[in-house]
């Protein structure tokens, strides 16, 4: 299939697999027969590799979807009579069709949050310390946080640590939805933490390590910390019962191995590893887009809604411009992101879409998009912008 200009900015999972991921799948496909259901050499190697990446012994299992990962993880840490606390904009609340509640039987309970999707710490503390009415109220069991949030913002390490401390003090376990975990690790707003420094060293009990949005085809890892083999065993049952256990698990494990890259001297957070290299590039492309819009497009009625911290950009633009862009083949999401995160456009003639970049986005794609903004607005493209392609 011939290559063509990339016009799809609707999401990050529209990108193909990282070359290293595809190569790893092909390599393991050439290894002949392997034992089924995760008792294969690729899965063993994947588990060892994740122990290296997180600098501790972890219990891990793989599933093909992020919804499946979150549902299995939460079912293990919250009973059917439990309450799982989360932000109103959390993916488990808005976009998983009740699956976490179906798997766990627990009740998702919303905690006041900032517009950027981060749980408000004082509000969570107040909720956690409030006595529940036994047996009439659901038992507080888990806190779920998303790093980075669906609005593209990162919790600081101190915020995660404080939330975990509050949760543990009141007997709750902490789940981290890391659908874009790699993008947070390399975000310029964080001090380049290692995977361990952003999870178990702060108190996170279970991480859903997302990779599909950052370079694999369909591979999500449920990672249990703190030697919780009992939870991992429970997760195995939930995975099977939910139809998420693949016979040829090696083709999930081989994706993860290619994604993480081979062991190096900087094995836990090698900046050249495929997953971090790809996420960093995606973040940089988003920041380039924001910079070009701020520099060249204000007179077109465009603006950047808020700071760019990872690989997503929220823009304000005339509705007519979006319609013209769509007619020329561009795909830009109007539904992604909460109303709180996007805020209110200046009038009904304006909209606030979300644009995503990914490892496959090239600088030329960003420049072509910005020039398309001018075409959609019926304005000539500045010479300096054309010359910067």
Provide a descriptive summary of the structure in words:
Helices cover 39% and strands 14% of the residues. By secondary structure, it is α/β, with parallel strands linked by helices. Helix 3 (66-77) packs across helix 9. The longest helix is centred in the last third of the chain and has 23 residues, at 274-296. 49% of the residues are buried.
Topology:
Blueprint: H1 19-29, H2 41-54, E1 59-63, H3 66-77, E2 82-87, H4 91-94, H5 99-104, E3 107-111, H6 121-129, E4 139-146, H7 157-169, E5 173-178, H8 181-185, E6 206-210, E7 220-224, H9 229-241, H10 250-260, H11 274-296, E8 303-304, E9 312-318, H12 319-327, H13 339-342, E10 350-351, E11 354-356, H14 363-377, H15 383-386
Helix pairs in contact: 1-10, 2-10, 3-9, 6-7, 11-14, 12-14
